[in-house]
User: Fold these one by one.
Assistant:
Number 1:
Amino acid sequence: MQFSWLLDLDGPRSAEPCCDTVTLSSARRLLGEGPVRWAAATAGAITRNIIGRVAESMVGPTPFETLRRTAEAVVLICLCGLADAGGTDGGESERPNGRSAPYGVPREGVETVRDCVRRGIPLDRVLRGVRLGHAFLYRALRDAAPGGELPGRLTEMLFEQADLLSGELAEVYVAERDRWEESEEAARCRMIEAIIAGEKADPTVAERILDYPLGRHHVAVILWREGHADAGPRPRLIAADLLDAGGGDGLLQVAVHASAVWIWIGFDVRPDRVRWPRSLPDGWRAAAGPPSFGLPGVRRSHLAARGAARIAATTLADTGVRDYVDVRTACLLTGDAEQARWYVQETLGALAAPDDWSEQLRDTLRCYLASGRSLKTAAEQLAVARNTVTYRVKRAGLLLGARHLADLSEVRLALEIMRFPDVLDRGPADRPGDGPGPMRRMYVRAGLVP
């Protein structure tokens, strides 16, 4: 075999493939497990490279996974095409995208193109991402090749594949753009975006386009998927389950992505508290806003859900719906993550350390102060002995020092922020700059970036 070293490629055991089962099963038959792991690890690096270099990039957990699945499928198709050309079987064989042609846009790529069209990403940006991805793949293969040099024929084939992919992607993009611009779904998206942006909208016209009564109370939900492409049911089925569990009187769904949906549940009578399912299907995350009335309430509840989603995205333990009511203080305090980080460090000092013991002290002190300094209530909430609470509170006080103990209101705010410490990892570079592109604007609106 001319390129037999391709079958010796391998990646870390932790590199979990994420593209669909059809792509993976075909690639495993042709290449084996090692090259599939190498493709998964390389695709992750390609995705991060594209996001770092394309201004209108896939920001946020859901679009990152979509782009990573596409990159992984493309890498696998490339490897299979190169391996076949090098003489693995001497004949025609199945490719990972289910086609007999040597190359083509994988299923995952079509999903990414649809996402870009919905977000208004121009075709030239999409093709630039393709060029960046293939340049990265070329360097990765070159580094893995014997002697650090790629044979001329293999280099030529890689460029041919990039040209073929770019051409087919352009065709898919144009067809999807034409279909999208004429669809009712696009009109619904444009209307809901205008409402969320605070633009004036005629309620009668909005109701007709959205097919949803606006003169009621609304609870907004942002639902998105993380992880494997084949994980769980479709978002519309989950939305119906949320409606049933919450006891609402109507439902509005706007698909902002193949794996993300904006939802509004309508209530004729304002609910005191919406009941949510205890958990969602594996791979799905959700965040909800508070009940709000009328056309302004559609925007108000969604913006709050966006804040709750920002908190939920940093909390891996969340398996149900993260309700804004439970995290509204943290949402307010962490709107500027950098300043929140300064506040915590200046207020808590050594008590803000990231170790487990400091976390126990913070949780105990927070429960103690929230209960009106009741040792009994704090012990019950934490399921520990009263003496344990007493000891931890004293230790926390020693770390805080007398200056901060004099103003416990600031300490309580800092402890509330530290309930979600991963939110503080965001810095200025994570925030949209002036004049963000359409994709970034969409995911700011989606609540998946601040």
Number 2:
Amino acid sequence: MEGIRDPAMALPEDAARRRASHFYQERTGTVMAAMTVYTVIVADDEDELREAMCTMIPWEDYGFRLVGNASNGLDALQLVEQYEPDLLLTDIRMPFISGIELARQVREVRPATNIAFLSGFDDFEYAKQAIQYNIISYMLKPLTIEGLGKELQAIHQKIDAQFAMFRQATMGADGHDLRTAMLMPLVLDDYADPRDEEQAEAYARQCGLLRDGSDKPSYTVMVSALLNREGANCTVPSFVAPVNTLAAKYLRCVSFFASGKVISVLLGNAWDFHEYLHILADEIPQMASRVLGKRCRIGVSRTVGALTALHDAYREAMEALRQGDRMESGAQFISDLAPAVKGGSLLCQRALDTLDQHYMDASLSLVSLSGMLDVSPNHLSACIKRYTGETFTNILIRKRMDAARELLSTTPLRIQEISQRCGYTDQHYFSYCFKKYCGESPNAMRRRLDRQKAGDLL
């Protein structure tokens, strides 16, 4: 087999696992001490390779617990939504949803999940497209058990470092730098005059917040608070560092601690905020829950175009933070609070109605649906899950499959035409989803229905 090369492949499963574990300890001279165990999902369309990775790798020796495996990107995405793993180890070329597209979709629903690519040398340039999607490792086939084990060790250390940043971060030298000193009064004090914007920008350039005279970003204020089991605020100044570190992956950011909360001023253009803000607002609570075992509530303001408008943005972020259930983690955007139609079961019903109208669009996603409804993806996702108990992905698949079943039973359309009418550009992908959902292939269902109709006519 091309993917993994080792004589242990020929051994029975238990013997192979023992041999692999012994092989690792023999080569390293080390039996790994107690460590944090991270969950992992494996996705690869090569059945033999996937089975080898699942059964022959001594995951526990490297500090991982295998919670699921998938043969394609669709199943992998659903497993990520179900198990919320710390690591997804995936081939970059898979049927239906490629590793690149899978990484993008995983980032939308579970940005705290790290992703490791396993693929051929020729895919390296292709893989560079996904660097922004929390790619923690890129491994080239063919791999030996020893080689994969060493890489898992390295990945474990990287995740350890991420978790340590949350557990042990303290205010560094930049915690009260010139940028913070400049921004704090603009954010907290209600005195800024729009006529002072030019002077504020000049000072922002002096302290390094703005690059030069052509640097004209927009600003959003985000307020983050940690809550204990009783819902009481337990935010500490050290939480500034992890918030800053995560934000820096997506946007320019300056954060500081004040009055029991972390206040972040985010800088970017309209595209930056549209693409990344909702992801950041999901990743911080996910990491806080996974690493600290605490809830994290976040309030997010509208975007403003001036430094002198930061206090108004801060007030919006605080108003958003006060909304919602304090016993639940998550982000609340002020833009989601305005009309009554943006909240509760009514929003969920609007989302389902809009999905009914657009399910045939192959590009339909949670982000595009939230844009149609003028709410944040975070708010829409939470609302759908709260009132239906399901994820957007599962609801969309069910709607498409129900529509396909109706078309199969009532029209003479070819399978390819039905797949296109149900939002699938790949007929094989459609057939796979249909069989998984309905228990039989589209052709098999049509033949069965035709036999039933013929029987009814006799």
Number 3:
Amino acid sequence: MLMRVIAAGTRMPAWVDAGFADYAGRLRGDFRLELVEIPLGQRGGGDVARAVAAEGSRMLAAVGDRAHLVALQVGGRSLTTGQLARWLEDRARDGQPLAFCIGGPDGLAPEVDARARLRWSLSSLTLPHGLARVVVAEALYRAVTVLRGLPYHRA
């Protein structure tokens, strides 16, 4: 199953790129993880709504029509590793690719949030967007190791 993190922002610190790449590289075979970066909308003149809308349009184009969209939201549903693993297992049976959307500095566009079939909260804290990429990658890797019965996860 293809899992894609679709994230607003294209200039992340090296540690973000390295962290995401490390976990993505560990996922092979039946579960694969990719990153799609969406350029931030222009925020000149204080037109934040237009910038967020532009990001949302690009994000939805990257998601495509078939993908099961997950919106990363502070107010979303919190999942344990076991719950995430079972959710991934169910999605694998559905056969749809997954798209995990991380918004820019002003959040996700309402159109992206409206299309989401799950709103997932990594924490009740607001995380930097780069760190959220790494946390999502690690959480997905950990959940897949649970499904595969590998020793990475120890409850």
